Amino acid sequence: MKNDFGGHDNHHYDNVDAYVGQALGVCETLPKHEDSFYGNYVVMTGDEVGTCLKNMYRNRYFTPSGNISGSCESQFGALTVAKLPTDEEILREAMKKLGMEEQLLMV
Questions:
Q1: Which superkingdom heads the taxonomic lineage of this protein's source (predicted)?
Q2: pLDDT tens-digit series, residues 4-36
């Protein structure tokens, strides 16, 4: 998720972000116009999550090392982090999020 130049009220949720350098790159927002990042399945090419947000929860992060650096864990509670999933697992998660569970049985 990204915003620039005072962007605000971005709600990035229930997405599959695959092979991104970091999950977030956002700027300060106006009071009561915070950005949100939740319920996402984030496969990163590095270990840096990026900018911490006040409204950040239920995300699952996957990194080459299975760890994250510069995390928001101390500010926003425990984060779910694991090593990189296979391409098939990423596609399976995307199909679930798109409501295509029936097609999963055929794969």
A1: Eukaryota
A2: 445 557 778 999 999 999 888 766 667 777 788
Closest CA to 81 of 98, 60, 102: 60
Measured CA to CA, the distance from residue 72 to residue 23 in angstroms comes to 12
- Phi, then psi, of 87 in degrees rounded to 5: -60, -40
Write the DSSP assignment of 51-95 as a string of letters.
S--SEEES-EEEESSS--BS-SHHHH---EEEEPPPHHHHHHHHH
CA 26, 32, 33, 39 torsion-angle sign = positive
What global pTM score does this model have?
Answer: 0.80
Asked if residues 43 and 36 have their Cβ atoms less than 8 Å apart, the reply is no
